[in-house]
Amino acid sequence: NTPDKKPQNMNYEQIKELKNSNLVTLGAHTQNHPILFNEDDNISKKEIDESINELSDILNEKTKFFVYPNGIPNIDFGQREMDILNDNNIKLAFSTKYNNFSKSDNRFAIPRFGFSKGIAFEINVKLLLGNYFSILKNMKNGDEIKERRSLMKLLN
């Protein structure tokens, strides 16, 4: 039995420091990290709108980018969320779909490779293999997307 891990959110000063570093561009990510696809219209809209507005206020500039919680297209977010982002004048939104970027990608579902954890070797392997990394990962761990789709069918 391990104690609950404390939230590791950034405070306002850290967000401003990161913005001023010019190392990254910040985007919104919802207020409470829900799976937006599972929420009703009002909750999904509120989560997105409030996160965009609060980040814009903190940065003193319009937020242009968004990253979906979990981020699997048609499982964690769908057309409804993309429409809400469009209404908020978001320029680009990023999914967690492992794939190389192409000009034909929907600007509200851009694929990306995540590097949130791992040792340098694993990060280098992800960069080297590109979209083939997820195929290998699913061979080892099972296909998460297929499992989640099966669960969604059971629940609907």
Summarize this structure briefly.
The protein is mainly alpha-helical and 156 residues long. The protein has six helices and two strands, in the order ααβαβααα. The longest helix is centred in the N-terminal third of the chain and has 19 residues, at 41-59.
Give an overview of the whole structure.
With 156 residues, the chain is mostly helical. Helices cover 45% and strands 4% of the residues. It has six helices and two strands, in the order H-H-E-H-E-H-H-H. It has helices at 12-21, 41-59, 79-87, 120-129, 132-141, 144-155, and strands at 65-67, 92-94. It has a two-stranded parallel ribbon with strand order 1-2. Strand 1 (65-67), helix 3 (79-87) and strand 2 (92-94) form a beta-alpha-beta unit. Helix 2 (41-59) runs parallel beside helix 3. The chain is globular, with a radius of gyration of 17 Å. The chain starts with 11 loop residues before the first helix and ends with a helix.
Write the layout of secondary structure elements.
Elements: H1 12-21, H2 41-59, E1 65-67, H3 79-87, E2 92-94, H4 120-129, H5 132-141, H6 144-155
Parallel strand pairs: 1-2
Helix pairs in contact: 2-3
Percent helix range:
40-55%
Roughly what is the average pLDDT, rounded to an integer? 84
Extract low-pLDDT stretches.
none
Q: Main sheet, how many strands, which sense, barrel?
A: 2 strands, parallel
Distance between the ends: 34 Å
- The ordered H/E elements are HHEHEHHH
Q: SS-based structural class?
A: mainly alpha
Shape: globular
Strand order of the largest sheet: 1-2
For the secondary structure, the number of strands is 2
